[in-house]
Specification:
mainly alpha; 135 residues; elongated
């Protein structure tokens, strides 16, 4: 019983660490950019640029791979999902139409799907002894 409880606590701690890192990375990459770009034809884009989102994704690889390598895949998936969804919901909550909830839901589904795939890959590499073999 003690072994299972300590694994559960370690999984919870990993999830909380990954969630906190995800919130911090959202703030660092996306949280400061709140203005839309207005083009000459009147259309708008933004507020985020592609490089910001790519930067967020690339820097999230480190904590996700860390947690997955330690065997805490559930913590990695839930941490990223919760961290990014809470960040998106907070960041977009000033939308008067209420559609920010749909966007935050899409962030949840997308982040959980991609993080789950990454955790599976890291777990497979870990089980093979850390070496990536040719396909």
């Amino acid at each position: 019983m003690g072994q299972g409880r300590s694994k559960s606590v370690a999984e919870l701690v990993s999830g909380l660490v990954v969630a906190a890192v995800a919130v911090g990375l959202w703030a660092a990459w996306l949280g400061w950019d709140q203005e839309r770009d207005v083009h000459p034809d009147g259309s708008t884009t933004g507020p985020y640029e592609a490089w910001q989102v790519i930067g967020l994704v690339v820097t999230l690889l480190v904590p996700v791979c860390w947690a997955a390598w330690r065997g805490h895949g559930v913590g990695a998936v839930t941490g990223v999902g919760v961290g990014l969804t809470v960040s998106a919901g907070y960041d977009w909550s000033d939308d008067a139409s209420g559609l920010f909830v749909v966007g935050a839901g899409m962030v949840l589904v997308g982040s959980v799907a991609v993080t789950s795939a990454l955790v599976a890959v890291v777990g497979a590499v870990r089980r093979r002894g850390g070496a990536v073999t040719r396909l």
